[in-house]
Structures are given as C-alpha cells and as structure tokens.
C-alpha cells in the first residue's frame, strides 16, 4: 500500500469535461453534461473527481469547452480548496486558444496537448486521463500499480457491456495476459468477446500513461495533419499496433459493498439519467452514496433541513421511498419514489410519483407529475398534469423512448402561451 500511495503522489488526473452530451436533450442546453445534477446534490463530474482524491491523487486539472459556466462555477465552489502549499493543485482549463488563435480543443488528445506546459509544472511521473461524465466509484491506485507492474505504454480501463450497446464505446480484444490486441473506436458492428457472443469489452475512457511518454506522443500527434487528435481514434489504436497497451478490468478496482456487482453508469440519455436517479430511492440501492470510506464530495449549499407540513386528508406533506434534499419544503404534497434536489418547494394537493426534480423548482397546487424529470429552476403551474397522457405530453414537452417526460422552463412558457395559462407564480 505504501508503494501505491507514492504512485498517487507523483500522479495527476486530467479530466475531460468539454462534451455537451446531446443525448440528454434540453438538460444540456444550458450546461455541459459533466455539470448535470445527480443524486440529490452532486454533479456528474464529482464522481471522477472524488475517485481521484479518494485514490490519493491531489493534482487535478479539468478541461472545459462547451457551455462551461455552470461547470466552472461548481468547480470553483466545490473543488478549489486543494492546497498548493501541500503540493496539491486544481486547475480549470477552458479552451482558450493558447496555442493558436483559431484553434479550440480539436479532440480529447488535443485538450491535453494544448496544456502541456501547465502539466509540466506539476512535476509528475504518471497521468490518468478521465472522462468526466460517468457515475462510478473506482480506486485509481490499483490501476496505476497494474500499469507500472506490467510495463505498459498505456493501460486502458475497461468493462463488459452488452454487445448491442458497445457501438457507443471503444471496443477491444485482449490476449490471456490482458494485452490489447485490437481497438476499434465506436464500431458500427462491435466484435464480441470470445465465448460471449452477446458481450463486448468496452473502454471506460480511462487511460494511464507515464507523462514523459504521453508528452512525446502528444507533440508528435499535434503535427500529424491526418490525425483527429483523439485518444480513442488515434493514440490508443497506434499504441495497440506499435507499443504495449494493457487492459485494466473495472471489476478489479471498483469500490463497492461486499457481494455487490461493479456499478458503472453512463447517464447520457434522459431514460438512463432518470433511472439511475430513481434507483437511489430503492430500499438498498446498488450505488452507495452513504459510504463514509469513499465519499462523493461536492458543493454543499448552506440550506436548512427539509420540511414537511400539513396533515390533512389529500393535503399531507409526505415522502415515501424518496430522497429529499436540504432546503426543500413539501407542503401538503404526496411524494412517492422520487428524488428532490436542493430547495424544491411543492404546494398543497400536488402529487409527485417517480419524479427527478432538480434544484430550485417550484410546484404549484394540484399539479400531478408521474415519471418525469424537471429541470432546475422550473415553475410548474397550478393543475399541470404530466405523465398520464403521452400524446398530450409530447405536444408540449420532451417524451423519451422509455416514456419519461422532460420538463424545462422554455417548454412551460410555450405551453402557457398556447393555453393562455399563467406560467409562473
């Protein structure tokens, strides 16, 4: 354990957080996917960052690009307390045309290349490249140790996924030693795992390199006009062919309760986002957010405790099989199997059933919402019914393939204009 701790001390985490996440539809109209809320109070990016700090990595940089204001503000509030005098660093690296006035980040590898001089100042031996848009708990020290012990040029974090879903990932084959023998980025027809025709071995978008080697690879790639300057498309396949690329199984480093399956979720669609949040309201959820040994850190807003008021028939402030965050006021509302983020205020005779309600939402009297995601800051008008008539919902809101209704304030405003209803209280 002492040796792995030294590895983490001489390692930095570089988090790629620039992609929009368009499959989340209007949830990413105002914020990048890693900044989307999750689990009652956190943001998606908090999982990768918490994994890094819990693994002992205290040198971290986050590269941002698309609509980054919400993400940057969150990072400033939640993560800047790292202390430089203790050799801890946290840098936010927006695409700022530092190398060329016409050039934003051209790809995932280029996002690192454009910040080589900053990374050099960290005085590190290894670098862990992370995607900032997945939900999981992982000890990166274990992956670092495997990387060093195997003498790999790159170690790629991987997990087993259903073959029909694998076209969204980099897909690899390995030999018995774990060496990667082929790597295809988002193939239309993903190759199956040997002996498992319905499964594929997929990249998690987590890579470990020695920094001197990656630095050389990046600078060479920057001058290659035929490159898309992307890890999965260019650098990793090149190392599979010309170097030593090793696979690291997520199952070996996943942080989980004893006897549990490894938990990893891409919450990149409205259905997946809704399901992963609703799963947290289960009696014994697969993802343990209450684990003090591996906490998911985030910005904790100074909010009063949640309050439940009124105790009359059909006007009882109650929540069953639900998660209710600080600052919420459940006033005469029936809440079932739902997750309410910070500062949600509901009013009398309303009903919420299997709903994910993001922060600062107000729900007026007599509203009924079922299987819905309500974006942050929305005012739900009095008497609005969502989730009971899919055809009617689809006229005004976003209904997912799985039957989840996404509600945003622009949708409410358009609905109000069409119906002549007051949209805001």
Automatic annotation (TrEMBL):
Residue sites binding alpha-D-glucose 1-phosphate per the record: 105, 170, 185-186, 203
EC category: transferase
Site (described: Could play a key role in the communication between the regulatory and the substrate sites): 65, 104
Keyword Membrane part of the UniProt annotation: no
Stated name of the protein: Glucose-1-phosphate adenylyltransferase
Matches recorded under CDD domains: ADP_Glucose_PP, LbH_G1P_AT_C
Annotated Nucleotidyl transferase domain residues: 13-281
Annotated PROSITE patterns: ADP_GLC_PYROPHOSPH_2, ADP_GLC_PYROPHOSPH_3
Gene of this entry: glgC
InterPro entries: ADP-Glc_PPase, ADP_Glu_pyroP_CS, GlgC_bac, GlmU/GlgC-like_hexapep, NTP_transferase_dom, Nucleotide-diphossugar_trans, Trimer_LpxA-like_sf
Family note: Belongs to the bacterial/plant glucose-1-phosphate adenylyltransferase family.
Keywords: ATP-binding, Carbohydrate metabolism, Glycogen biosynthesis, Glycogen metabolism, Nucleotide-binding, Nucleotidyltransferase, Transferase
Subunit text: Homotetramer.
EC numbers for this chain: 2.7.7.27
PANTHER family noted in UniProt: GLUCOSE-1-PHOSPHATE ADENYLYLTRANSFERASE, GLUCOSE-1-PHOSPHATE ADENYLYLTRANSFERASE-RELATED
Originating organism: Pseudoroseicyclus aestuarii
Domain Glucose-1-phosphate adenylyltransferase/Bifunctional protein GlmU-like C-terminal hexapeptide: 304-407
């Amino acid at each position: 354990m002492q040796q792995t701790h030294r590895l983490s001390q001489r390692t930095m985490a570089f988090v790629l957080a620039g992609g929009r996440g368009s499959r989340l539809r209007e949830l990413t109209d105002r914020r990048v996917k890693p900044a989307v809320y999750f689990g009652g109070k956190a943001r998606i990016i908090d999982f990768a960052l918490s994994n890094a700090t819990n693994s002992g990595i205290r040198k971290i940089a986050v590269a941002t690009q698309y609509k980054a204001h919400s993400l940057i503000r969150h990072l400033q509030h939640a993560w800047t307390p790292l202390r430089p005098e203790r050799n801890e660093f946290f840098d936010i690296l927006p695409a700022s045309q530092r190398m060329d006035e016409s050039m934003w980040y051209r790809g995932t590898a280029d996002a690192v290349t454009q910040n080589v001089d900053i990374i050099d100042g960290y005085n590190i031996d290894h670098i862990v490249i992370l995607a900032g848009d997945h939900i999981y708990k992982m000890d990166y020290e274990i992956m670092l140790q495997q990387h060093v012990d195997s003498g790999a040029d790159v170690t790629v974090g991987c997990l087993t996924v259903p073959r029909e879903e694998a076209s969204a990932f980099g897909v690899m084959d390995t030999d018995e030693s774990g060496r990667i023998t082929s790597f295809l980025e988002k193939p239309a027809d993903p190759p199956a795992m040997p002996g498992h025709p319905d499964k594929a071995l997929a990249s998690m978008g987590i890579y470990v390199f020695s920094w001197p080697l990656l630095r050389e690879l990046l600078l060479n790639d920057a001058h290659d006009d035929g490159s898309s300057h992307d890890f999965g498309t260019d650098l990793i396949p090149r190392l599979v062919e010309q170097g030593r690329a090793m696979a690291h199984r997520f199952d070996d480093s996943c942080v989980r309760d004893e006897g549990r399956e490894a938990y990893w979720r891409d919450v990149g669609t409205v259905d997946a986002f809704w399901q992963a949040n609703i799963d947290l309201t289960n009696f014994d959820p697969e993802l343990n957010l209450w684990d003090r040994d591996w906490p998911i850190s985030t910005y904790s807003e100074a909010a009063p405790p949640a309050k439940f008021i009124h105790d009359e028939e059909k006007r009882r402030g109650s929540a069953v099989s639900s998660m209710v965050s600080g600052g919420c006021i459940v006033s005469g509302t029936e809440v079932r199997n739902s997750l309410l983020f910070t500062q949600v205020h509901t009013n009398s005779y309303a009903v919420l059933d299997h709903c994910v309600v993001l922060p600062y939402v107000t729900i007026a009297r007599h509203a009924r919402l079922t299987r819905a995601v309500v974006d942050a800051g929305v005012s739900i008008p009095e008497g609005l019914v969502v989730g009971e008539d899919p055809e009617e919902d689809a006229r005004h809101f976003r209904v997912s393939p799985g039957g989840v209704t996404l509600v945003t304030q622009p949708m409410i405003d358009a609905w109000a204009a069409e119906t002549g209803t007051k949209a805001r209280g």
